[in-house]
Amino acid sequence: MQIKTFHAHFLLQTDSSNQERIGFSVILDEDETPEQVVPILRQKAINIVGKKAYDFYQDRRILRDECNHLEKKLELLRKEWDATAEFLKAQGLNPTAPSMPQFRNLLTAVTVESEVIHDVNDEEDDYDSEDEDDYDEEM
What gap in Å lies between CA 27 and CA 82, rounded to an integer? Predict the structure, then answer.
């Protein structure tokens, strides 16, 4: 027996309470078997549905933990910097040794400027001295 047309359907969990059914109908090549095609189709279905919400929460937790770790590390480095600056001031080696700068919320300082573009052929909005002359002649 040779299978020519193959139907594969997958029920994928999208989050804790939702599922999605994805199905494919394929015509197998002469050298393909269903056993070879099913893993490829399963991965294709997973790629279409995307990550589960749980995976996004896990990624968020991992990134939050990493940020907390880096903030603690930065705080330790800040204390070492400040101790070094105090030492340099106390010894008279560098009386103007600065404290470590603050690196918080740097991205929120970025602003986007807006730009208004006028059509160069729009003569009503353009003002020049000839407009005044035309106005005076009308009066």
Answer: 70
